Amino acid sequence: MARLKVGVLISGRGSNLAALIAACATASHPAEIVLVISDRAEAQGLDHAARAGLPRTVIAERDRRAFAAAAGAALLRHGVELVALAGFMRVLDAGFVEAWRDRMINIHPSLLPAFRGLHAQRQALAAGVRFAGCTVHFVRPEIDAGPILAQAVVPVHPDDDEARLAARILTAEHRLYPLALRLIAEGRVRVVGERALIDGAKTPDVLAFNPCEPLVPPDD
Ligand code: GRF
Fold it and tell me: What's the pLDDT tens digit per position in 202-214?
């Protein structure tokens, strides 16, 4: 079966891009990355793309509509079927988002809909939540909104600072994003009424407590 052609948009470090590249590296993976676009020439993530021998392009256009036009043309030229935002830091033109509706995904370092926007990990610490995590969702014009495809949960520890929490979440991101991509590439995901439905989704049967002191046994 033909592999799903993916275009990845980045702005910086590109560790999620690296995770996606690694996941797609096996020929049996149902997706392949055919283009990496960065809006910054100095984005470290471009090195990951270069090492993997992937087509890459820098579109440093500051104007939102001009960026959308250039990115849209590049994506079409490479036959991209799904766009994955991976640390892409710019607000996208609404028309571009609409053109890629249900064909563009993003990863965000919080359990959405909590803590949208910048510094999600800092927001989680400030709110005192006991669990944090990350979300892969379909992109809508509103920032960090759209049908949720997959989430991973990590505990918040009492001595966490932003960097420690961010690192724990990032480890989860690197597993979650490839998983979400695989589900889409396998043709198992549909968006119905702003909810993402996954055919044959296996869901966990676990209960997590934080703190996890010995618990009172449940009544029989
Ligand atoms: C990640 O935390 C991602 O969730 C957020 O931006 C960060 C990008 O990191 N959208 P990287 O560039 O993939 O390393």
Answer: 999 989 999 998 8
Q: How far is the CA of 87 from the centre of ligand 1 (A)?
A: 4
| Superfamily, domain 1-100 | Formyl transferase, N-terminal domain (3.40.50.170)
Q: What letter represents residue 25's amino acid?
A: A
> CA 125, CA 23: separation in Å to the nearest integer?
31
The CATH number given to 106-200 is 3.40.50.170
User: Is the full-model pTM beyond 0.90?
Assistant: yes
Are 186 and 28 spatial neighbours (Cβ–Cβ below 8 Å)? no
Domain boundaries of the chain, sorted by first residue: 1-100, 106-200
**Residues designated as active site:** 108
**Distance from C-alpha of 201 to C-alpha of 191, rounded to nearest angstrom:** 14
Name the burial class of residue 69, with classes exposed (0-12), middle (13-18) and buried (19+) by CB atoms within 10 angstroms of its CB: middle
Ligand 1, residues at Cβ distance < 6 Å = 12-16, 45, 86-87, 107-109, 134, 170, 173
